[in-house]
Amino acid sequence: MLTPVPDADGAPFWRYAAEGELRVQACADCGEPRFPPRPCCPHCRSFAGEWRPTSGRGRIWSYVVPHPPLLPDYAAQAPYNVILVELAETPRIRLVGNLVTEPGAPLDSISPDRVRIGARVQAVFTATGLPQWILERP
Ligand code: ZN
After folding, report:
1. What are the boundaries of each domain within the chain?
2. pLDDT in tens for each of the 138 residues of the chain?
3. How far is C-alpha 66 from the chain's CA centre?
4. pTM of structure
């Protein structure tokens, strides 16, 4: 099971995730969202940042179904999906995760043939604060 390992820039992301909230970093001067978290805005070079709440909603922008050889911890869960989610409020930001049936469910809880590009998804969180995704309409 994956456990978040926050660095200084990403620590707020994980702190909000542990509370069940998906937030993205944004520039406090020009307002541009940015991901992954970093100290400087790539648009205006400001170091002022804020953490903007999101609805946690998005669409599957792309996905893969990894095949062996896999790391030992993942081999037992294959086949499973890895999805790239485009956030509803900030379409330029895409997060990598797994589509599952419910919060904390195993990676193989949903069949890979149910994953579709464009499907609407909602962020959920494991007990350790790791974001996962569920279908809005299962
Ligand atoms: Zn900026």
Report:
1. 11-135
2. 567 788 999 999 999 999 999 999 999 999 999 999 999 999 999 999 999 999 999 999 999 999 888 888 888 888 999 999 999 999 889 999 999 999 999 999 999 999 999 999 999 999 989 999 999 988
3. 18
4. 0.91
List own/partner pairs for 113-120 with CB under 8 A and 24 or more apart: 115/60, 115/63, 115/65, 115/81, 115/83, 116/60, 117/60, 117/61, 117/62, 117/63, 118/59, 118/60, 119/59, 119/60, 120/57, 120/58, 120/59
- Ligand 1 centroid–CA 14 distance in Å is 22
SS3 112: helix
Q: Which residues have their alpha-adjacent CB atom under 5 A from ion ligand 1?
A: 27, 29-30, 41, 43-44, 46
> From the CA of 4, how far away is ligand 1's center (Å)?
27
